[in-house]
């Protein structure tokens, strides 16, 4: 055995001992959590005092959460070690663990003490002499990578055990599984800056394809939850992605980091009860996303607050109740002046109108009595009646209540100031040429909006529904009373919770930070709902932090909706302006963010591409310089195994030749995954050539919109000219398509290759 092999064997042996011991600590922690859970359940169901119940619930859910977390970190529990010049070693892992003496044995990757593992460089080692990556298979240490910052500072023994292969490159060479994995072991310094950036304010992460924007944003979510758990568990974290396929692709990253309480959604799903299933054409998308749609909707609501053409006349039991036109106008203006949402202002309007109708009823009654000409002997009874002015407040209230029960009165109110739901307002608006014409501000091409009344909702409609909900408001007085009562209850719950923490000693174990968090979790006693569940179901939920991925695709109207979800304006905005595919999307970050944040946002740039090898990136750079010359392509971190190529294939032979080509490519990537990216128009036809597959299937056929944010070992781009021509952003679409591959790229074309791909000719 050479000295070096000897050193490696020794190092593996040493690390194995540490790692086995750490797994043992993990098992002990799990057993303890399980035992506590069993014990809590054994104490019975809903019997006992309220305090006992709260105590049981608190312990049970907390231990269950802890167990989930402990189970999630089984794979790759410990992945790194840093050594300082004093001979001190620190192990870094997915979770923090302590030894029997309560001394720290494994440091959570998010803790400040772990930071040096990610940021130390040869020029600025920050006191480290070595950084070591540990590669585990199950619980076995199978490999070690060392980076030495100070050879002199290391002991003789350690110098012998030095091992080196860049951990990052090893991670990047791994075949894709169809799901994004976490990268805790290999976070790069520029990504670490993004991940650990403060919670306050908005952080924009701009970077080319494959620069790790998504992965960094997700690790940032885990970091923020760890660092600000009290705030964020209470308010929740929302991740907004471009489509449900993408959400499935990234769905395992946070659970693998032990974080399960994050709400993930798309713009099309952000209005509870509505699922956007259709897509808008580029022109309609631009108009729907235009910020002037907010004015149009506000005007559409005003148009639903009508005054009758002449006087308001309601026929009731043979009486004609007449409210003069001017009175109706005055009532409407008074109700508008309170500046409440439509449905709330309606209450005021109806109350006032009913009073006027009650007076009108009295007048009508009086007139009818006069007509009958009551002649009585007693002279004082022959005085003209004045029923209207005889009505006092109580009479008016009673009369109003009675009138509100009359269908004729309801009908009249429905005509003048109807109660509206967002869906009704938007559906009726978008299918009425006359209303659109009347409500649209100058210069907005409202004709693009026209559609059938029962047309399915699109993702572009969802921000309109949300805007409408704001303008209409809901009558939430009952909910507010309940909330006030719940607030009183909360104080009581907190007291119980604090007692629980003290009594059980759980607080000392550092599992809970705050009694109010615990109390809030139990305010929903019996429903079993978590913060994430409650937040996802509530349109008006105010999140503690929002992460928007592929943020360049969002329209100004979608931004208005997102900003409503995060009043504290604590956001991570992740995207690439060079990949904007939606005609309604962003051209600059300032243009979409300044209206909400007035320049109060900071930007980090990621410049290194971890996905696409140099050879493929050269092709992508040609596309970028033709269609978005102001944008810089990122620099690839590695060389590829194969030159990208173009294959000519007549459309008539696609059915036969494409599966053949895909088969060859699949054979090249072995266990890896392959994505076929097509123009929208070819998607159905090409999909039909392959067994239907989701992300885990070896072959997936996608449009560019669906492929956004995803990656595959091999990519076959079909009909690049079709992609270029399918929308005003076709150039950006082609850039997205050719940057999805981690190893191999093939472009299939029928006619001449578009000039931007001439490198492949
Ligand atoms: N530090 C890292 N260690 C290991 N792998 C990494 C690292 N950073 C990024 N990667 C890998 O690079 C690939 C691209 O990352 P990601 O999808 O986050 O990029 P992106 O910038 O969001 O790309 P796009 O703009 O195309 O959506 C992923 O497979 C990711 O796991």
From TrEMBL:
Taxonomic superkingdom: Bacteria
Keywords: ATP-binding, Helicase, Hydrolase, Nucleotide-binding
UniProt KW Nucleotide-binding keyword: yes
Entry-linked Gene3D superfamilies: P-loop containing nucleotide triphosphate hydrolases
Residues that bind ATP: 207-214
Domain UvrD-like helicase ATP-binding, chain residue ranges per copy: 186-613
Spans traversing the lipid bilayer: none
Protein name: HelD family protein
């Amino acid at each position: 055995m050479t000295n070096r092999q000897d050193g490696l064997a020794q190092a593996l042996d040493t690390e194995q001992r540490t790692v086995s011991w750490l797994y043992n600590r993990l098992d002990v922690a799990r057993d303890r959590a399980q035992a506590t859970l069993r014990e809590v359940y054994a104490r019975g169901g809903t019997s006992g005092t309220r305090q006992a119940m709260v105590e049981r619930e608190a312990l049970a859910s907390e231990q269950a959460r802890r167990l989930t977390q402990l189970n999630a970190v089984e794979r790759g529990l410990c992945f790194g070690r840093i050594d300082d010049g004093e001979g001190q070693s620190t192990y870094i892992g997915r979770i923090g663990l302590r030894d029997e003496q309560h001394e720290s044995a494994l440091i959570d990757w998010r803790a400040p003490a772990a930071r040096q593992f990610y940021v130390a460089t040869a020029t600025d080692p920050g006191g480290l002499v070595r950084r070591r990556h540990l590669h585990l298979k199950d619980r076995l240490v199978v490999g070690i990578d060392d980076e030495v910052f100070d050879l002199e500072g290391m002991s003789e023994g350690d110098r012998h055990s030095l091992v080196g292969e860049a951990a990052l490159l090893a991670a990047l060479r791994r075949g894709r599984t169809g799901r994004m994995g976490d990268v805790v072991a290999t976070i790069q310094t520029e990504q670490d800056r993004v991940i650990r950036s403060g919670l306050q304010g908005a952080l924009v992460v701009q970077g080319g394809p494959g620069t790790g924007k998504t992965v960094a944003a997700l690790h940032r979510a885990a970091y923020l939850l760890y660092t600000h758990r009290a705030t964020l568990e209470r308010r929740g974290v929302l991740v907004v992605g471009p489509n449900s396929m993408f959400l499935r692709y990234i769905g395992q990253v946070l659970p693998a980091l032990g974080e399960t309480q994050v709400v993930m959604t798309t713009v099309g799903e952000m209005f509870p009860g509505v699922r956007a299933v259709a897509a808008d054409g580029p022109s309609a998308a631009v108009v729907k996303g235009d910020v002037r749609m907010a004015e149009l909707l506000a005007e559409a609501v005003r148009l639903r607050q009508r005054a009758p053409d002449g006087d308001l006349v309601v026929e009731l039991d043979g009486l004609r109740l007449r409210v003069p036109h001017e009175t109706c106008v005055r009532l409407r203006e008074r109700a508008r002046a309170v500046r409440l949402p439509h449905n709330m202002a309606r209450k005021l309007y109806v109350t006032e109108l009913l009073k006027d109708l009650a007076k009108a009823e009295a007048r009508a009654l009086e007139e009818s009595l006069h007509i009958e000409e009551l002649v009585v002997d007693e002279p004082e009874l022959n005085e003209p009646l004045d029923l209207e002015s005889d009505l006092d407040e109580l009479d008016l209230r009673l009369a109003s209540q009675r009138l509100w029960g009359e269908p004729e009165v309801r009908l009249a109110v429905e005509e003048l100031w109807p109660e509206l739901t967002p869906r009704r307002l938007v559906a009726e608006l978008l299918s009425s040429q006359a209303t659109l014409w009347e409500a649209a501000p100058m210069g907005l091409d409202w004709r693009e909006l026209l559609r059938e009344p029962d047309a399915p909702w699109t993702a572009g409609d969802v921000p309109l529904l949300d805007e409408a909900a704001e303008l209409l408001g809901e009558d939430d007085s009952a909910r507010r009373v309940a909330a006030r009562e719940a607030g009183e209850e909360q104080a009581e719950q907190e007291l119980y919770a604090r007692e629980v923490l003290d009594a059980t000693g759980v607080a000392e174990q550092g599992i809970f930070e705050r009694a109010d968090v615990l109390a809030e979790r139990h305010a929903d006693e019996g429903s079993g709902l978590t913060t994430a569940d409650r937040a996802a179901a509530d349109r008006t939920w105010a999140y503690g932090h929002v992460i928007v991925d592929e943020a360049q695709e969002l329209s100004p109207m979608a931004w208005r909706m997102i900003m409503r979800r995060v009043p504290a304006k604590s956001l991570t905005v992740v995207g690439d302006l060079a990949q904007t595919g939606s005609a309604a999307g962003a051209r600059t970050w300032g243009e979409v963010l300044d209206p909400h944040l007035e320049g109060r946002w900071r930007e980090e740039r990621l410049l290194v591409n971890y996905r696409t090898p140099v050879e493929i990136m050269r092709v992508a750079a040609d596309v970028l310089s033709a269609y978005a010359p102001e944008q810089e392509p990122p620099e690839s971190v590695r060389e590829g195994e194969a030159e990208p190529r173009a294959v000519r294939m007549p459309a008539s032979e696609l059915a036969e030749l494409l599966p053949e080509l895909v088969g060859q490519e699949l054979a090249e990537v072995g266990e890896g995954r392959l994505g076929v990216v097509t123009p929208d128009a070819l998607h159905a036809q090409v999909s039909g050539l392959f067994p239907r597959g989701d992300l885990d299937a070896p072959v997936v056929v996608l449009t560019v919109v669906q492929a956004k944010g995803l990656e595959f070992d091999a990519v076959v781009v079909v009909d690049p000219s079709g992609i270029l021509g399918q929308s005003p952003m076709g150039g950006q679409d082609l850039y997205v398509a050719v940057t999805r591959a981690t190893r191999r790229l093939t472009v299939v074309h029928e006619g001449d290759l578009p000039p931007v791909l001439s490198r492949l000719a």
